[in-house]
Protein: G-protein coupled receptors family 1 profile domain-containing protein
Amino acid sequence: MLVLAFLSVFSNSIICHFILKSNTKRTVTDCFVCNLTVADIAFFMSAPLVASVRVNENWALGRGVCRLLVYSMNVCGTVMLWTMSAMSVNPVT
Structure:
């Protein structure tokens, strides 16, 4: 799971970097893809915390971090779903 999280963060960072550094005209689709990569990076940054809880069966980071983790995972998941929904109705230009 940690390897998957690392690969996800690395590949999404490269995609976002190329979109932002591109000299061509930015389209709505570029903004959607960049938004999707940022939400995906934020979502998978929590994977090591979830993996450690699954292995140790103990949460050692306190109640506030637990609440923040659950909140951020829910927000990032919702952002990814809404972004993909918006991409599906966006006309291809």
